[in-house]
Amino acid sequence: MWMKKKYSEPTGGKYRHEIKLLLSKAEYVTARTRISALMKPDSHSLRNGNYFIRSLYFDDIYHSSYWDKIAGVTHRKKFRIRTYNFSRDVIRLERKEKNGDRIRKTGTGISLDCAKALIAGDCSLLKPDDSFTAAEFLALWGGKGLRPSVVVDYTREAYVEPVGNVRITFDKALRAGIAGAGGSCVDMFDEELLTVPVYTNGMVIMEVKYDDFIPKALSMLVSSVGGEKIAVSKFTSCRDVLDNYKPQTIGL
To answer: CA angle at residue 171 from 165 to 173, to 5 degrees?
Structure first.
């Protein structure tokens, strides 16, 4: 019966434009120097200007999130649990939706017990009345067998500009979880979780997000940055790495 409940879109659900570039170390240093001169560090950054992000992505029994991305499906979505700086106090269940070159992220806070239960395959602590995100997550959990897929780690350096609501991030040291205590590779709270690098040459992912426009000075700066424009997601990249260690985890 809960499937019939109506939800309004949660706060923060506006579509934003997104550009991704894959940078070499040298390109990153040049871009960072220029951008840091025009933009302010994100308020969540630590003293060294970085913060650590760990996410656990989910996928269904058809591996829809993976294959939709590989196939370039225009409108797609995926779910994840995300933490910052190894915190066990602030944990979010998030839904990321992609439509062309625009993205929309919504989410809700969950408890550590709830997160651990979901990792173990138990959704009983997450209630559909909690939020729009929780209701859709549970619908896919029961309808398509949504379950934990891969742990994704990286260090983020972020800058913001209020005009245009521009946010530029540099995501470094991207790593995939491959093994942990008891043989689980998806327990994001396992302190002994083994992760391996996705890029062995120090490549950095630069992401540019904005609402409707970018101020001219920033637009020119972004246009001048070298690097390769990419469509590959951190989720699929880490899933490929995991598949190399656990053959045939992704079905055909």
So the answer is: 170
Q: Do residues 191 and 172 touch, judged by C-beta distance below 8 A?
A: no
Residue that is written with structure tokens 């991030």 in the block: 169
Confidence of residue 8 (pLDDT cuts 50, 70, 90): very low
CA separation for the pair 56, 209 (Å, rounded)? 22
d(CA 175, CA 154): 6
Give pTM, 2 decimals: 0.89
CA 252/CA 248 separation, integer angstroms: 9
Give the span between the Cα atoms of 194 and 182, in whole angstroms.
12
Residue 73 contacts by C-beta under 8 Å, 6 or more apart in sequence?
Answer: none
Q: Which of 74, 73, 139, 130 is nearest to 107 (CA)?
A: 130
How many residues are listed for the chain in this entry? Answer: 252
**SS3 label, residue 112:** helix
| pLDDT (average), residues 145-164 | 96
Is residue 166 within 8 A of residue 209, CB to CB? The reply is yes
Position 12 pLDDT exceeds 70: no
pLDDT of residue 251: 45
